[in-house]
Design brief:
This is Oxidoreductase. By secondary structure, this protein is an alpha+beta fold. The chain is built from five helices and four strands.
Length: 112
């Protein structure tokens, strides 16, 4: 494992890079790890690469709180999830969990 590619971002992303998005950095992966370690019941949901954005992952906690970060490729977040012993799902197959929508609604009501 090279220190410059700690999470395999460059090795695992493959030849395709989204056209308009910034590159994935170690800070993106570390933010997901920090979120997962500081909350209970975290699950990762992988979102596919689009023309405008790189592959992203959404980390959703037990209470519905969530964060989204770039991950470069699904293999990167699968490796992180395996290291943390957390589940990872393909959002195109499973959809987002209902608790995520409920959390968003609670946040909207609290603001307004």
């Amino acid at each position: 494992m090279r220190w410059r590619d700690r999470y395999g971002l460059r090795r695992l992303r493959g030849p395709k890079i989204a056209k308009y998005d910034r590159a994935t950095t170690d800070a993106d992966i570390e933010a997901l790890i920090a979120f997962a370690k500081s909350r209970r019941g975290v699950e990762f949901y992988v979102e596919p690469e689009t023309f405008a954005t790189n592959t992203t992952a959404v980390a959703v906690a037990d209470d519905g709180e969530w964060t989204r970060r770039r991950v470069g490729s699904p293999a990167v977040i699968r490796k992180v999830a395996r290291d943390l012993a957390l589940p990872v799902y393909d959002v195109q197959l499973t959809g987002y969990p209902p608790r995520m929508r409920a959390y968003n609604e609670r946040q909207k009501r609290a603001e307004g």
